[in-house]
Design a protein that fits this description.
The structure holds two protein chains of two kinds. Chain A is an all-alpha fold. Chain A contains three helices and one strand; from the N terminus they run E-H-H-H. Chain B is an alpha/beta fold. Helix content of chain B is 47%, strand content 11%. Chain B is globular. The two termini of chain B are 27 Å apart. The chains are: A mainly alpha, B alpha/beta. Chains A and B meet through strand 1, helix 1, helix 2 and helix 3 of A and strand 6, helix 6 and helix 7 of B. Strand 1 (6-7) of chain A pairs parallel with strand 6 of chain B, so a sheet runs across the interface.
């Protein structure tokens, strides 16, 4: 039996709360945040990552559509051929 | 350690501490943080109080637990033995949930291969494990199958961003802690703080 999905109800952890829970001092927390912030923000990267994922989905969809088009075009050609044969 | 009045949910990560598992270790921290959970692990236990007591305390504190049994294999070191800690801690979690004396709400079992659990731990037959295929994406996917936040769910891409942040800062954290492995109390604490900070930035 697959376990049911658990809905997590808040409050969601904040960085200060987590640091307190884990026993990380305020000074260390500041150091860590400085270290992390020096690499740029995640919000910008998030936008790019989502865009990239969207692009991949669109590409797959386009490929499927193209396949369908090819399939129907070949069917059309085949049909035309048969019709042509029948007429002759 | 003072407990907060209405604290955020915590998840006990019962995972192997070996070099091959390092990527998945970071993935578990990133994924659980993205889902709004505070990751906890036996790595935090450093005091000389009897280890078993501390493990029990930690499991009791956490509402949820995730048990990865993908590395219950015979190791290379002589005498060659499998590691029994993870199945043992899973047993403790199940027993604690059954006793119903605390806030525990659920336990989940992970594996990297389908059907192996039914051979290695047949007592759990009837409980489907979450198969992560031993990949980072698999861990994110299965965590998303176990838990959900109210409202908008974190995407695998967002979890991946948190993972990358951890990965990027790992070298500096290890250097600062004078450690060669992420499986130490200090490194684990720092990683959790960074992951929660990234999750807060991305999802709130």
């Amino acid at each position: 039996m697959k376990a049911r999905k658990v809905i997590i109800r808040g409050p969601f952890p904040t960085v200060k709360e987590t640091a307190k829970l884990m026993g990380v001092s305020d000074r260390r927390l500041k150091e860590l945040l400085r270290l992390v912030r020096s690499n740029g923000t995640l919000r910008e990267k998030n936008g790019t990552a989502l865009e990239e994922a969207g692009r991949k989905v669109r590409k797959t969809k386009d490929m499927t559509r193209a396949k369908k088009r090819t399939a129907s075009a070949s069917r059309e050609r085949r049909a035309r051929g048969k019709t042509a044969k029948a007429l002759s | 350690m003072a407990r907060l009045q209405k604290h955020s949910p915590e998840v006990f990560l019962n995972i192997p501490y070996d070099t091959k598992f390092e990527r998945l270790f970071l993935a578990f921290i990133a994924g659980t943080s993205a889902l709004g959970l505070n990751p906890r692990a036996t790595l935090e236990i450093t005091t000389s109080v009897r280890r078993l007591e501390r493990v029990l305390d930690l499991i009791r504190q956490c509402e949820y637990s995730v048990h990865d049994l993908s590395r219950v294999e015979i190791d290379r070191a002589v005498p060659r033995t499998p590691r029994f800690n993870m199945p043992f801690e899973l047993g403790l979690s199940v027993a604690m949930e059954r006793s119903g004396k605390n806030e525990r709400r659920g336990w989940f079992v992970c594996e990297s291969r389908s059907y192996r659990l039914s051979k290695s731990l047949s007592d759990l037959n009837g409980t489907d494990p979450f198969i992560h295929d031993g990949t980072i994406e698999g861990v994110f996917r299965e965590l998303g199958n176990m838990f959900r936040r109210p409202g908008k769910q974190p995407t695998v891409q967002q979890m991946r961003l948190i993972y990358r942040k951890l990965r990027k800062n790992l070298a500096a954290i290890l250097q600062q802690a004078g450690s060669k492995t992420p499986y130490s109390a200090r490194v684990f604490r720092d990683l959790c703080v960074i992951a929660i900070d990234a999750a807060e930035e991305l999802l709130l």
